[in-house]
Amino acid sequence: QLRLAESGGGLVQTGGSLTLSCSVGGSSFSPYAIAWFRQAPGKEREGISALNTALGTSLYADSVKGRFTISKDNAKNLIFLHMTSLSPDDACSYYCAAAQFLDNSYFLSLASSPYDYWGQGTQVTVSS
Predict the structure, then answer these.
(1) Angle, vertex CA 82, rays to CA 22 and CA 115, nearest 5
(2) Rounded to whole angstroms, how far apart are CA atoms 70 and 91?
(3) Buried b / exposed e across 33-55, counting CB within 10 Å, b at 16+?
(4) Strands ordered across the beta sheet of 3-7
(5) Which strand (E) or helix (H) includes residue 70?
(6) Which is higher by pLDDT, 52 or 28?
(7) C-alpha to C-alpha distance for 128 and 110, rounded to whole angstroms
(8) pLDDT > 70? residue 107
(9) Is the predicted pLDDT of residue 29 greater than 80, yes or no?
(10) Residue 60 to residue 110: CA distance in whole angstroms
(11) CB within 8 Å of 45: residues ≥ 6 apart
(12) Per residue in 55-90, pLDDT tens?
């Protein structure tokens, strides 16, 4: 199975930027989709961005659209989430995820259930 591991979390001031990374390994096949999710304590997990590796399309949740960018480096098997204009509302644990196969409707909805593999998470803290 795939193994994913996030890194790059930390403390950043309001209005600042941060880039998260996720290494992908453990399997020779290419996931159909990769995505980033986040979750604050006591709150529901939120899908914030996904990339369809087969079609090369990406999408974003309204809460991060225009501020966050998802990308990947195929040669290095890395997924990135570049975050800008950060606010305290963005202070969460961030998780990367991958799906071997995914119906397009689930991809578009940013639902977490179709994703088969998950990283352990990395914490992002945003000061006022």
Answers:
(1) 45
(2) 18
(3) bbbbbbeeeeeeebbbbbbbbee
(4) 3-7, 18-25, 78-83, 68-73
(5) strand 68-73
(6) 52
(7) 29
(8) yes
(9) no
(10) 8
(11) 37, 38, 39, 95, 112
(12) 889 999 999 999 999 999 988 999 999 999 999 999
